[in-house]
Amino acid sequence: MWEVASGTPVLQFCTDGFRWAQSIDISKDGKYLAIGCGEQTEIGRYADCCVRLWRIGASKQAAVYPSKRPVSRVAFVSNQSRLVAVGKNGEIQLLEVPHS
């Protein structure tokens, strides 16, 4: 994440060493960042297929939800207690956000 005015990076969220986040969403309260991850490394082989949930203020990962294929879309549900993740294979997951 960058500070808009200066363009200075203020937080970094890792996706396990792979190049791209497929999708991101920030919760309406600004406390969580969800990252849909995964990429094909070879024909029939995939790496880092998961949703990574980060607590923005603490700059720490709150949860990792595995997926069979890369996660192409993530979105917080309106009440912020759940997260929807859609995999590139059509898999849809409804995930619980661990509020503490």
Could you explain the architecture of this structure?
There is one protein chain. By secondary structure, the chain is an all-beta fold. It has one domain. 0% of the residues lie in helices and 52% in strands. The protein has a four-stranded antiparallel beta sheet, with no helix packed on it. A three-stranded antiparallel beta sheet has the order 5-6-7, with no helix packed on it. A hairpin with a 5-residue loop joins strand 5 and strand 6 (82-87). The radius of gyration is 14 Å and the shape is globular. It starts with 20 loop residues before the first strand and ends with a strand.
Quick description:
This protein is mostly beta strands.
What tags apply to this protein structure?
four-stranded antiparallel β-sheet, three-stranded antiparallel β-sheet, 7 strands, globular
List the helices and strands and how they pair.
Layout: E1 21-26, E2 32-42, E3 45-55, E4 60-66, E5 71-76, E6 82-87, E7 92-96
Distance between the termini: 23 Å
The topology string of helices and strands comes to EEEEEEE
Q: Please mark out the parts with pLDDT under 50 across 5 or more consecutive residues, or reply none.
A: none
Q: Structural class of the helix and strand makeup?
A: mainly beta
Q: Helical content, roughly?
A: under 10%
Query: What's the number of structural domains?
Result: 1
**Overall average pLDDT:** 84
Strand tally: 7
Query: What's the gyration radius in Å?
Result: 14 Å
Figure out the total of helices. 0
The fraction of residues in strands falls at over 45%
Strand line-up across the major sheet:
1-2-3-4
- Main β sheet profile: 4 strands, antiparallel
